[in-house]
C-alpha cells in the first residue's frame, strides 16, 4: 500500500465533539480513491459503485495531518476495486479503513459500463510517484 496524499484537519472538518467528522473523512476517501483509480486506469470516466466495510479505528483532531494509503484489490472487466487506509501521519495509527471501494469505467455519453482494457499485471507494473 502506498500513501499518496495528505490533508490537514481544519476547524470546519470537525464534529460537535471536536474530532474529525466521519462524513468528511468519507468524502475525502471517495475523492482520493477516485483519483487513484482514475490514474490507474488512465481514465476520468469512472463512477463509484460501492463502498464496502468501513471501520473507524481512532480519532483525528484539528491540526493533525492525515495520509491516504491506496491499493488495488481486484481488477474486473469494467471495474476496479481499491482499498483505502487513512492514518495519522505523525503517529501512524489507522484512523479509518475503507475496503472494497468499487469504481466502474463508463462510456461518457451513454453512462453505460465499458471495458477499461487493463489487467492486474499492467496495474501492478505502474510506477507511481509518491510524496516522501
TrEMBL record:
GO process terms (BP): acyl-CoA metabolic process; fatty acid catabolic process
CDD domains the record matches: BFIT_BACH (cd03442)
GO cellular component, one term: cytosol
A Pfam family it matches: 4HBT
Keywords: Hydrolase
GO terms for MF: long-chain fatty acyl-CoA hydrolase activity
Region (Disordered): 108-132
InterPro entries: Cytosol_ACT, HOTDOG_ACOT, HotDog_dom_sf, Thioestr_dom
HotDog ACOT-type domain segment(s): 1-109
Membership in a protein family: Belongs to the acyl coenzyme A hydrolase family.
Protein name per UniProt: Acyl-CoA hydrolase
Taxonomy of the source species: Bacteria, Pseudomonadati, Pseudomonadota, Gammaproteobacteria, Alteromonadales
